[in-house]
Amino acid sequence: MKQPFETVVAQHGATVLRVCRALLGVHDADDAWSETFLAALRAYPALPDTANVEAWLVTIARRKAIDVHRAAARNPLPVERLPDAPTALGVPGAADTDLWDYVGRLPGKQRQAITFRYLVGMSYAEIGAIAGGTADAARRAAADGLNNLRKNYPDAPAKPARPAKPTNTPNAAKPASTAKPVIPAKGARP
């Protein structure tokens, strides 16, 4: 017959606390100790009578300590001073804020179609499924959005430059990339 759970806590509580403090330190050990016994309380009725309760509790405590370490790894680290401006690292099109301001002024469906198609790279069928329409409606919204951008965005080229044909000469100069994004030509597919 199993002992009452209160007796298990009284017998093995100090051992579990030592394990938690060894793995986590004083600050997080109390929380891990509590989480250990909450998990053990839920699982205790299914524990066989012949099980080594102390080893079982130490295993739970070890896993709870691992959970605390994983959670701490996901938390932001405090810094002494915040940066003056937000970073553009990892933000697509961060250097092209003017263009994205114009995209932000487009009507909703056009803005979604342009963003999903040219920033995310989705197909028109996927855009239609997300926006609640058809692939043809998504294609039309993207085309209308591009036309609006060509009319209103001051840096949009009248006709986007076509890529230069590659030459077979070894010392041929490669075309320089432009700093501004190129709005696709009417009828062009990315």
Question: What is the compact description of this entry?
Answer:
The protein is mainly α and 190 residues long. Helix content is 56%, strand content 0%.
Q: What would you say this structure looks like, in words?
A:
By secondary structure, this protein is mainly alpha-helical. The chain has helices at 5-24, 26-43, 53-74, 97-104, 108-120, 124-131, 135-152. 56% of the residues lie in helices and 0% in strands. The longest helix is centred in the middle third of the chain and has 22 residues, at 53-74. It is elongated, with a radius of gyration of 30 Å.
Radius of gyration (CA) equals: 30 Å
Number of strands: 0
What general outline do the C-alpha atoms trace? elongated
Gap between N and C termini: 71 Å
Query: Could you tell me the mean pLDDT?
Result: 79
Query: What structural class do you assign from the helix and strand content?
Result: mainly alpha
Beta content: under 5%
Order of helices and strands: HHHHHHH
Which regions contain 5 or more consecutive residues with pLDDT less than 50? 159-164, 172-179
Summarize the main sheet. Answer: none
Q: Helical content, roughly?
A: 55-70%
- Total of DSSP H or I helical runs spanning 4+ residues: 7
List keywords for this structure.
190 residues, elongated, 7 helices
Question: Layout of helices and strands, plus pairs?
Answer:
Elements: H1 5-24, H2 26-43, H3 53-74, H4 97-104, H5 108-120, H6 124-131, H7 135-152
Helix pairs in contact: 1-2, 1-3, 2-3, 5-7, 6-7
